[in-house]
Target: GntR family transcriptional regulator
Amino acid sequence: MPGPNFDRSALSTRVTELFRSQVTDGDWPLGSKIPTESELVEWSGAGRNTVREAIASLVQGGILRREQGRGTFVVSTSDLRSSVSRRAAATSRRDSLELRLALDAASARIAAVRRTEADAERLVTLLNERRQAWTGGDARERVRADSALHRAVVGATHNAMLQDVYEGLLGVFEEVQLHDVAGETDALAQLHADLVEAIVDRDPERAAATMSELLQPMIESAEPSDR
Model:
């Protein structure tokens, strides 16, 4: 990537905003590993300590995450997402599930009205991938496949703010869901198929009701103080 015309004496806040723009502009996509510290020093023209401070600021803000032995990764693309994520991480399992139900049910209803043909095709594809994850995937693979389908439902709303909020919560939702994907049988397979069918058929009430039927049992099984 071409380097900016950058004054070496600039404050770390300017470097922080430079790095943040790499995320918000899509140069560092969500989930990607960012360049190494040495590469960032060379690219930005800033000192090593300034680069470290900028990265630390974005880690603290929830935009980046350091992983020991692997590097630093983009885990959020906006301050809204990272703020929501930090708040959700501090709440109970039951509260997280209730919030997910509210968002997912509303998203299913809106998606059934606004979905495009491309959305419908993607939902069917992800439904099949979710089924496959239960035949040989481990718990995290199952959760990732399930999340991909639910994210696609939210994406089919074409509501940018709703998508931002949901992305900020997704990591918390996935950790909570790890409690519910053990065993060889996917007890919710038919309900997920019914959900996709309702959205494809443009039936908002059935879509919302099916989403509620999917999530309500998990809420009922969680104690109010569950973490």
DSSP finds ten helices and two strands in the chain. The chain has a mean pLDDT of 84. The chain has two domains: 12-77, 80-221.
